[in-house]
Amino acid sequence: MRRNNSLVGLILIAIAILVIAIPGWAAEKATVGLIDINKILDAHPNTQKILDAEKKLQEEMEKRQTELNEKGKGKTREEVQKLEEEMNAEWAPVRDQILKERQDLINQRYSDVIAAVKKVAESQKLTLVIRSELRIPVSQNELLEMPIVFYGGIDITDQVIEEIKNIVAAPGE
């Protein structure tokens, strides 16, 4: 965790040095866009579909475990193991399909976010876009939102969300 914080700090310092040191950027006054990536991801329609796929996978796994427990009652350990192998062989294609669909949704969401950020940044002539906060685990069940930027920048989160809506509404264009 400490290494990740150090890495983020080094990246931000490197960006600041680039903004100051590169003559083309210095001449044009750099404009930084900020995004709340968590808000953007939550707003993407695929996020709910991803959660639904994960829920479906979990429910199927629980259903199959219950079925194995029922069918395995009164059987020897070897018989239960053989039954489990048969059920796993039957389940593998279903599981793989759900996982593939989930990954396709994640990839599409990522692609949409990148395209929307790029389009909004170009339309506002932003030099750089960074996330405004970073989630840092403070315990097993708790995340802390730490600001990366304390001052300045232009928040383009809502414009990116609107652009994602346009991208999703008009696929393949």
Describe the protein's architecture and organization.
The protein has 173 residues and is an alpha/beta fold. It folds into two domains: 1-30; 31-169, Skp domain (Protein Binding, DinI Protein, Chain A), CATH 3.30.910. 69% of the residues lie in helices and 13% in strands. It has helices at 2-21, 23-27, 37-43, 45-72, 77-123, 157-169, and strands at 32-35, 128-131, 133-139, 142-147, 154-155. Strands 2-1-5 form a three-stranded parallel sheet. Strands 3-4 form a two-stranded antiparallel ribbon. α5 (77-123) crosses α6. The radius of gyration is 23 Å and the shape is elongated. It starts with a helix and ends with a helix.
Please describe the structure with a list of short key phrases separated by commas or semicolons.
three-stranded parallel sheet, 173 residues, 2 domains, Protein Binding, DinI Protein, Chain A, two-stranded antiparallel ribbon
